[in-house]
Amino acid sequence: MPVNILAFRPTEIDGNGISVVRKKYTNTLSDALVGVDPDKYHLTELPVSLFDDLGLTVLEAKRDNCIGQACVVELNTTSYNDKTKKADLKDKTRLLALEAGKRMILSPVVTDQ
């Protein structure tokens, strides 16, 4: 299933980097979706080595309601909006989206409105 690169674009709440949840801290699929609307998020399994290969850093970012929370440091709003970094980061988000589509576990339900 294709994943739009916008899924990896940082938003205004991603000042420290986009959020990810580490599998070893989850028991169920719903554990990975704590605090988010499951109808708006894809659930995919991407190895940390993929982020490493792209030069992206995954760091622990503890949240009370999600023990496995981490962030992708370089994919933060400041860096993404920096014209000198944006093209490189867009290339990396495109590659992440391609891999996410190949490794999809759960995708949002799309309804016609």
What does this protein look like?
By secondary structure, the protein is of the alpha+beta class. It has one domain. The chain is built from three helices and five strands, in the order ββαββααβ. It has helices spanning 48-53, 77-80, 86-102; strands spanning 18-21, 43-44, 58-60, 69-72, 104-106. It has a three-stranded antiparallel β-sheet with strand order 1-4-3. Strands 2-5 form a two-stranded antiparallel sheet.
The helix-strand sequence is EEHEEHHE
Major pleated sheet: 3 strands, antiparallel
Considering DSSP H and I runs of 4 or more, what fraction of the residues is helical? 10-25%
Class inferred from helices and paired strands? alpha+beta
Overall number of strands: 5
Instruction: Note the overall shape.
Output: globular
Portion in beta strands: 5-15%
Number of helices: 3
Biggest sheet strand line-up: 1-4-3
Rg estimate, integer Å:
14 Å
The overall number of domains is 1
Report how far the terminal alpha carbons are from each other: 21 Å
Poorly predicted runs are none
Rounded average pLDDT: 85
